[in-house]
Design brief:
Cytochrome Bc1 Complex, Chain A, domain 1, seven-stranded mixed sheet
Length: 980
């Protein structure tokens, strides 16, 4: 039974809001595509839904399923989140596991060719066509290839009957009749090879070696979707056509449509454009994917089989061992799901113990257990951990001893109850938010259910099934479920180490065969904690002012201690509240020598504790509540953020306020964060992307030491005592804004604010020198700055950047610059990928910080072959100069404006988008003053405005960075025994 947790799309900077005091006209428009008399789907089967055959799982009747005589199956559903959008998925049951030896990579190559040219699109027309309809490339229009399937995706905004019909027609033509010509192959093979090159390096070598070990003897062991250089370069139009004819058949297709339309209309359009599809030649059964099998002579009680030790200099140590069972297509019924839920609770208990051990003297940094069914090839229980030191055997014994205890004795009922409470909160939350689940996510659920050969269920059904298992959540039943998790046909393991000679396959094999003693040290038998027993923040306070800000009921609330709050109630998102606390100076608050404590704070500040609560206490107190605690450092402010619900809102506010009022300073999280940073540091230099992650932010800020990734020497010198000194100062400084947006009870929320943030002491003002602290931008030189990496010699990366500005006075300009960067990005993609095949994913982005007056930047980034670096810089500089001299064409502008316009119209229903735009408005009037023009700033943007901005910012030479292979860098990993 497939059920997937939903997450709000809250990370985009372009946020839509209704104009002051009046909604956008689009909100009022009726865009539902209603069924007409002509919409009479012939093959809909409401009484025989194909995905539920053979199961007793209650049918989710919001879905309409159908099956055509040619074998195409479909699932359609009405959904108005977001309004006016239709989500289309076409899943083909053909992935890399279906490839013959000389076809490796063909499934993924074909995915590219389908978008290149087809019966319904000329060469290179598809992406631009959907951009003109408002579908952004990559998010709304894309495709994915896995070992078992290839899926084509379209989220069509502002859909009407005409665009829906035409888009389904075009997708049908793309999938059924791509133009697989030698010319198109010559265009796409270099792009796929560039994608392969970008994925190359240590991480891919480790992934491929791990897969080869875990799935030894099976097709999955040697069939990565990216393929091989030899088979891709050897691909011919005839060979790719043969692959398409063999697998792209109606019997292998599932079409999903979800959106703002009557299901009958959706079903009718699917039948209209897919019913005539017929396969070529006889139907071919999928190959046998094989089963995991223990080698001859393996012990039945501890069937350790294949192991591998992979040496990758610079990579952090990690060990994974898997208990593998054959994948079996199950009967997806209620009892099967009850058993799964019992195993999930058992897994949660084991993981909680492993985390306890890691926090309290364990020899591993982290460890986790998970069960997964991999590519219809194995049903496995996977145990992964990172040793703290070179003594990997001690860490392995430590992890295995915790698991051995879980297998030997039943858990305490209190441990089970905590795990059950966490699941129950999550399932209740899913029910509450099901009415706002996006149509794209519902469509993806069907695709994933088909992939794992299971049914789907409504959130209500899942909650009911979970609660029906309550009588079985007993120590004995959880013990039995735990034992089942760790039983299998074969145990396989992979160890990753940066140091040659540190371990051998024989040593790893022997360590797994050696029995370990059960250790109960990680059991969690502590009593529950009640918020009522915690110390109060201070004396509760009433607000001194409440005033509307003029945006659909948003209210500013002020307290005598200087705290200000923004409240917005939205009843269309039941059970969902976001709390965002902005306080202090952000990056401005750190001195030049305190960058190491910024890095440690990002990892350890929350876990250092609150008042009497340590890490484990925080976990326990949140077990039966919807609470979360995220921390971010931004240019001009620090942020606490959590997702909660009204009944837990005061507790969420308490955690945040208490962190400011009574922080505690447990040294263990700091030491653990320091160990993590030390383990990870060497990996940054092993490929271009790692070097970018390590150094780009630092370089773009003029070499400001606060933004440098701390070196191992700096980490070694950092202390918990100094961590406390730095963060005590920062937590005490600067104004506080608390934003509470979502499904709130306004009066209860204000009362809760008064007992928490209103009860805080007066804050220390930010020092003048902190307020004035700014960042600089590097001077552009005649030659690029050069950094090196120690990875493959065919990998390089490049950046070209121009300084922008900052501050809320420039909000309107920042919106226009966002469009300009997208125009730039489209041109760069066309030049480097589509025409030259030199790079897979070049992109351009702009950033305009609103809380500080400096630090904005527009930059282009690409991963590319070293000898093509000059071509990238030439292409980027040429585009910049041309945009400044001539501006964009009307079509280029429309291809970025329409997706932005449609995103704005779709996004406006979610409170998170309002929050992203209004954050800071309690102290900064510009956030409200420039709100009314947000739609028109995008919708009415002109080519002249784009040219003017390009002249202002892009006419100067850009600062350039290139990351190239170090001389003599190793290009391959090694294996302890095989030389890999």
């Amino acid at each position: 039974m497939a059920f997937f947790t939903r997450a709000a799309r809250a990370f985009l900077p372009v946020i839509v809001f209704l104009p002051i005091a009046a909604p956008l006209p689009a909100l009022a428009q009726d865009c539902v595509i209603r069924a007409t008399e002509a919409d009479q789907p012939e093959y809909a089967r409401p009484d025989d839904p194909w995905i539920y055959r053979g199961t007793d799982i209650p049918v989710d009747e919001q879905w309409l399923f159908g099956e055509m005589p040619n074998g195409v199956r479909y699932a359609v559903r009405q959904n108005d989140v977001p309004p006016c959008q239709i989500s289309l998925r076409v899943r083909i049951d053909a992935g890399s596991l279906h490839e013959r030896d000389d076809e490796r990579g063909f499934a993924h190559l074909l995915e590219h060719l389908v978008f290149r040219e087809s019966a319904t699109f000329g060469p290179g027309e598809a992406i631009a066509h959907f951009q003109r309809l408002g579908a952004s490339f990559g998010f709304d229009t894309n495709a994915t290839t896995s070992p078992t399937a290839t899926t084509y995706n379209l989220n069509l905004p502002n859909a009407n009957r005409t665009t829906l019909d035409d888009s389904v027609r075009r997708f049908a033509g793309m999938v059924t009749s791509p133009t697989l010509s030698p010319a198109n192959l010559a265009a796409d093979v270099p792009i796929v090879l560039s994608e392969r090159r970008e994925q190359a390096g240590a991480q891919r070598r480790v992934a491929e070696a791990t897969t080869a070990t875990f799935f030894a003897g099976q097709r999955l062991a040697e069939r990565s979707p990216i393929g091989t250089v030899e088979t891709l370069q050897g691909a011919t139009a005839e060979a790719v056509q043969a692959f398409h004819q063999r697998w792209y058949r109606p019997e292998n297709a599932v079409v999903v449509l979800v959106g703002d339309a009557d299901p009958r209309a959706l079903a009718a359009v699917v039948e209209k454009h897919f019913a005539s599809w017929s396969g070529t030649g006889p139907f071919v059964e999928a190959p046998d994917f094989g089963d995991p099998v223990a080698p001859a002579g393996a012990s039945p009680s501890n069937p350790v089989g294949e192991v591998d030790v992979i040496v990758e200099p610079g990579q952090p140590r990690a060990v994974t061992f898997a208990i593998l069972r054959p994948w079996v297509e199950i009967v997806d019924n209620l009892e099967y799901n009850r058993d799964n839920l019992l195993k999930q609770v058992a897994t949660e208990v084991v993981n909680r113990r492993l985390e306890n051990r890691a926090r309290d003297g364990g020899s591993f940094l982290f460890a986790g257990v998970g069960r997964d069914k991999i590519s219809r090839s194995a049903d496995g229980t996977f145990v992964t951990f990172a040793p703290l030191t070179q003594d990997w055997q001690a860490a392995l014994d430590d992890v295995r001893s915790v698991i051995a205890d879980a297998l030997a004795e039943p858990p305490a009922q209190s441990e089970i109850d905590q795990a059950v409470a966490r699941f129950d909160v999550a399932f209740v939350d899913s029910v509450e938010q099901s009415r706002i689940q996006a149509g794209s996510q519902l469509a993806d659920q069907i695709v994933q259910a088909v992939d794992i050969r299971e049914a789907v269920a409504s959130p209500e059904t899942f909650l009911e099934v979970f609660r029906s298992v309550a009588p079985r959540f007993t120590p004995d039943d959880v013990l039995a479920a735990t034992r089942e998790l760790f039983e299998g046909d074969v145990i396989r393991s992979v160890m990753l180490t940066p140091t040659p000679g540190e371990a051998s396959e024989a040593e790893l094999f022997a360590a797994l065969q050696t029995p370990v003693a059960a250790s109960s040290v990680a059991r969690d038998n502590a009593t529950a904690i009640d918020f009522a027993d915690l110390p109060v923040i201070g004396e509760a306070a009433e607000p001194i002012a409440r005033e509307p800000v003029g945006v659909l009921g948003v209210e500013r609330v002020s307290f005598a201690n200087g705290v200000r709050a923004l409240l917005m109630g939205r009843d269309n998102e039941p059970g969902r509240i976001t709390v965002r606390v902005r306080f202090g100076a952000g990056w401005r608050g750190f001195e030049d020598d305190e960058g190491v404590y910024a890095a440690l704070g990002s990892m350890a500040l929350v876990n250092s504790g609150i008042g009497p609560l340590g890490q484990n206490d925080l976990d326990r107190i949140a077990a039966d509540r919807k609470l979360s605690f995220n921390f971010e450092i931004e240019d001009g402010t620090f942020i606490f953020q959590g997702l909660t619900r009204q009944e837990d809102l005061e507790q969420q506010l308490y955690l945040f306020a208490a962190k400011l009022a009574m922080p505690s300073w447990d040294s263990n999280p700091v030491e653990r964060a320091r160990a993590s940073a030390l383990i990870a540091y060497d990996s940054y230099g092993r490929d271009p992307s790692g070097v970018l992650n390590r150094d780009l932010d630092f370089l773009l800020r003029g070499g400001d030491p606060r933004f440098a990734t701390p070196t191992p020497e700096q980490m070694q010198a950092a202390t918990p005592a100094e961590f406390r000194v730095v963060w005590e100062r920062l937590l005490a400084q600067g104004p506080i804004e608390v934003a509470v947006f979502g499904d709130i009870d306004r009066d209860a929320t204000i009362a809760a604010l008064g007992r928490t943030f209103g009860a805080l002491d007066q804050r220390t003002p930010l020092p003048a020198e902190v307020i004035a602290r700014s960042v600089s931008f590097p001077e552009a030189g005649a030659q690029p700055k050069v950094l090196t990496h120690a990875g493959d010699d065919n990998q390089a990366a490049a950046v070209i950047a121009w300084p922008l500005g900052g501050g809320s006075e420039g909000i309107v300009q920042s919106r226009k610059l966002d469009l300009l960067s997208q125009i730039f990005s489209n041109r760069l993609l066309d030049g480097l990928r589509e025409r030259a095949g030199a790079a897979y994913s070049p992109f351009v982005t702009s950033n305009w910080p609103l809380d500080v007056e400096t630090g904005g930047v527009m930059f282009a980034l690409v991963q590319i072959e070293p000898d093509l670096l000059p071509a990238f810089f030439d292409e980027a500089q040429t585009i910049a100069r041309d945009l400044a001299a001539n501006g964009p064409t009307a079509d280029e502008l429309e291809r970025v404006v329409e997706p932005a316009r449609q995103y704005l119209l779709r996004a406006q229903t979610g409170h998170t988008f309002w929050l992203n735009q209004l954050q800071g408005a309690a102290f900064d009037a510009n956030r409200i003053a420039y709100l009314p023009t947000i739609y028109s700033d995008y919708d009415e943007a002109t080519a002249q405005e784009m040219q003017s901005l390009a002249q202002r910012y892009l006419s100067r030479p850009g600062w350039q960075l290139q990351i190239v292979p170090a001389a003599g860098a190793a290009t391959a990993s090694s294996s302890a025994t095989s030389g890999r």
